[in-house]
Write a structure and sequence with these properties.
The complex is a heterodimer of chains A (113) and B (113). Chain A has 113 residues and is mainly β. Chain A is built from no helices and eleven strands. The relative contact order of chain A is 0.34. In chain B, the strands form two sheets. In chain B, strands 2, 4, 5, 9, 10 and 11 form a six-stranded mixed sheet that branches. A five-stranded antiparallel sheet of chain B has the order 1-3-8-7-6, with no helix packed on it. In chain B, strand 9 and strand 10 form a beta hairpin. The N and C termini of chain B lie far apart (40 Å). The chains are: A mainly beta (113), B mainly beta (113). The interface between A and B is medium-sized, with 25 and 23 residues.
Chain lengths: 113, 113
Amino acid sequence: EAGVAQSPRYKIIEKRQSVAFWCNPISGHATLYWYQQILGQGPKLLIQFQNNGVVDDSQLPKDRFSAERLKGVDSTLKIQPAKLEDSAVYLCASSLSYTGTQFFGPGTRLTVL
Amino acid sequence: GQQLNQSPQSMFIQEGEDVSMNCTSSSIFNTWLWYKQDPGEGPVLLIALYKAGELTSNGRLTAQFGITRKDSFLNISASIPSDVGIYFCAGGSGETSGSRLTFGEGTQLTVNP
């Protein structure tokens, strides 16, 4: 069974630029999560989708971050404009349902200069 | 918000030694999970705990869900070089492993052959 796919794996941008990350969850998984992991810290949940609806986005900085999962399958996370403190690994995870075990992708490492 | 205190931050041990790490919180969690993260990869679930007082083993790993529901520990017996990595505890606010997770800061484990 294929795991959670993420792209790109690495991205370097300058501050105030925009960036987008893509995630394709495990086939059939209804729940999708985006996490931010700053170096030396544990992952922090940004947003959780159940199919194409948002379940929890209470920790998403909505002034600059947005995410969508239009068809309830793959998802895109966008940052516009990026700040230096956005440098982190962005992890996508999926689970069969909101009660199921979360499986993580390899992450996208973002560096903002 | 909820916070987890994970200790120790790092450990340097010899192959064959046993390892113990723990997480504490001022908040009650309904589930406790332990993940391992290798460089450049997302976290992988090792053990999930669902009931206060529960003691669960997975091979050389043993974890316990504290009676107060505010703490958990993970033991690794007879460590081997491939145990190297960062171990994260995570507290779940729901009653399943798929519920909203709060992660600890991680324990970096180094095993010397």
